[in-house]
Amino acid sequence: METTTKPLTLERTYNATADRVWSAITDVSKMRQWYFNLEAFEPRVGFKFQFAAGCEGEDDYIHLCEVTEVDECKKITYSWKYEDREGMSYVSWELFPEGDKTKLVLTHKGLETFPPHKDFTRDSFNGGWTHFLGALQEYVENK
């Protein structure tokens, strides 16, 4: 799907190997420690997963996702939409080894396809992804 708005892109460099970061973003038991409480996850094209999450003190949104691209230890992309809501977006995690460190580039495109709502603004997504990238850093560097 072509989008008209610039994707949300965040970059972080972690003091961890690409293998360690890849494992943290694709192994469901590790993901549960810093990301969402997923029932299941597999880094396999076509794998569908869902989870409930929302802003504190408000109703949860059911997130419906499907893995659309996997390049082992380099990139994973999945669709990201909400049950009973308009819109479809895609989240990509790309890893770039830099010696014993890893640069991660997270790209979330298609945000403009969601209906106008305070929880679906670019700033809201930026805040959420900033939180999770910080949690990932804590996990890969200190666990």
From TrEMBL:
InterPro entries: ASHA1/2-like_C, START-like_dom_sf. Transmembrane segments: none annotated. Residues 15-141 form the Activator of Hsp90 ATPase homologue 1/2-like C-terminal domain. It comes from the Bacteria. It holds the Pfam family AHSA1. Belongs to the AHA1 family. This is Activator of Hsp90 ATPase 1 family protein. It comes from Flavobacterium beibuense. The lineage of its organism: Bacteria, Pseudomonadati, Bacteroidota, Flavobacteriia, Flavobacteriales.
